[in-house]
Design brief:
This protein is mainly β. It contains two helices and 25 strands. It folds into three domains: 97 residues, SH3 type barrels (Roll); 101 residues, SH3 type barrels (Roll); 195 residues, Porin. About 9% of the residues have low confidence. The radius of gyration is 34 Å and the shape is elongated.
Length: 411
Amino acid sequence: MIKPQARFFLFWLLLLIGIFGWVRIGAAEELKLRVITADATVRLEPGSESIVVSKVKLGAVLNSISKSGEWYSVDLPPDADGFVISGFIHQNQVEVMGEADEAQPTAAAAFDAPRKVRVSAEKAEIKEEPAFDSREMGQASQGTELEAVAMAGEWYKVEVASGIFGYIHQIHVETVGQPAPQAAPSRDAAPHPPAQPQAATQSAPVPGAADVKRNFSLKLTLGFGIGFQTLDTGINKYNKNTGEFLGDVTVSPGGGSSFMLDLGYYLTRELRLELGVGMQSSGVFAGGDKVTFSRVPLTLTLLYEIPSPKKWRVYAGGGAGLYNAPEINVEVGSGSAYIKYDPSFGLHGLVGAFTRSKSGKWFYFGELRYVGVFNYKWKEARYGYTWYPSSKFEEFGGHGIFILFGIGTYF
């Protein structure tokens, strides 16, 4: 039987051992490892014969709290279902990152003039920031030429679409027609893999900007137009309470509210072709009375974005449209009238300015657009009282200026 003094001593000894072990485990240093090889393998057990549970891209950053021989234990980021995969990665496929490696990305130093770089790897990722663990903006295939405007450490800052910039590591590209610049020391760069054979890069095809993602745009436009001509409906407007004459009821076929949805495609970095559909309506609304002229435009527009390093960029363009379902609707007092016209062809020109969000995915714009529509031709009419339109309603045109604002996205 253990004496009370011995039990007391044993209790405190075990307690101290437990506290010491807990402190050692809690204080175990969590290492940050950066993958330095392409498609590094993570295995189920610490051995080269063990099952491969996952592959990790070059530059990925992993956490490890223990090491077994030459193998680090690591936890991979959760997948879409929140499931975390654990495994082991060999020390030859990673490097241990220090505090300096976790510093903010190096600031980009602008070139005196833009430089051309060509992708020499089979596929090269374009990042939002000059770091391997930054979010991917897109990919460029071998032979793609990009315009570099600055360099951050070992990363080129390149224009991947009009006004959209990203970063591509120098190990994936070669300069075109000039010597490569000396890179500033980078804390995020991985060791260089063997260079691509020169003959392969020279014979590779050179695709256009279409090899970079986000060639399409979708934008929503709202605004109001001022018509340059008015049509007198022949109806007089009176105050219902006093009987006072308020004026003639008119309608403007070239203005009114405008709602448009445009799908765009970048033909080049500066040229964009847009197909738009929407609704435009102008008229007078007072009390229970209304006189409206509405139409559904289907437009095709070619835009040119003027290159500029500024936050806001200017664009201009023009195109043609088919203005469908034009109609006049009159509801005044107890009477009504409805006049329908054939679709009409029109032309338009515009100038505008836009800016992009920090991520480059969204853009915001303001626009001034002139619209000129050829004659609308009378098709049919229905009347609910003794008013009949004059001959000027049988065929007429409309033109005006629209002030528009909107938001869009790239994809």
